[in-house]
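#data-curation
PF: Archiving a pair of folding outputs for the training set. Convention for this channel: one message per protein, sequence first, structure tokens after, nothing in between. First:
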Amino acid sequence: MTAASASGEPSAKHTKRRPRFVGWRFVLCALAAAVVLAALVRAFLFDVFYIPSDSMQPLLEPGDRILVSRTAYDSAEIERGDVVVFDGRGSLAPLHSGRPAVLDAAVTVGRWFGLAGSDTVYVKRVIGVAGDRVSCCTDGDPRITINGTPVDEPYVYSGDAPSNHAFDVVVPEGRLWLMGDHRSVSADSRSLLGAPGGGLISTERVVGEAQRILWPLERGTNIDRLSLGAEWNTEK
């Protein structure tokens, strides 16, 4: 007999295999549950984004991974000085990338694991909110003015001017004026002054607030608007 002993008991060969199979099934179920839980957390609570460029130096360096709160603005207003992550499709990025679907899927997987940046999701600093008049380089003052008041910006990349060209915009309801800290290399609201929407980003496109640098570990720190030293003392 091969399947059972003479007494009808399962053979030793079969009794050894069943626990091993049950163990692997438990591991696979646990891994699947962990992936689903992580996906839910990243879709609704927190996400991790890879920084691919130097447009937010010196605060963020290429290769940094940042923690982004998707719920930060559920019960709070977006404020001047906040560092936000937003979907740039239709504004800073084309609506369709033109890449093969397979390549798009590979990029999405890489971004999910923090191994690649997105070409449609950006991180910038909020300079103007609804009702603000944001101007630069007027009346001989090189600083940006918000509602007529010049503001100091200690977070701007060393050696950069507040802006390479003049602008004067009024931010309408539901829109934001966003700029990178490394002004000389940042593609931001200034880049779209002549386009539909005038470079003003919809608040509905904001994914969340950048709250902490997670990686590399030696650069781990909170991203706090107030701790950056900017004094946003203008009144709308």
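PF: Second:
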Amino acid sequence: MKPIRLLIIDDEADSGEILSMRLNRRGMETHYASSGEKGLTFLQTTPVDIVLLDVKMPGMDGLEVLAHIAALYKQMGVIIISGHADMDSAARGLELGASHYLLKPVNFEVLLHKIEDTYTQKQLAGQDSAC
């Protein structure tokens, strides 16, 4: 079975890199982008299954990035991971197509479960559209 391919988009490099290392140890292929713009540029050339996306970032915020992903990459899963509890951004993120909205600091086991759930749902959706 091929590893789940993830892109972490977060302006906090330390937390993004630590999360990337932990997910790599679990057999996932991870990549990191320090801004929404860099993440969208990366997606133009490298396919991923799921994006782990921060909301509050300088420049293009996570909800803007999510809107672009939803328009361009219909089968890509997105999980929002935010350090700011904001019901409006959570509701907006889910409306735009995010699978889950988690708050930092994230329980790693919960995150793994949400990644697997999102991956499975996207795989099933892809099979349904192929029929």
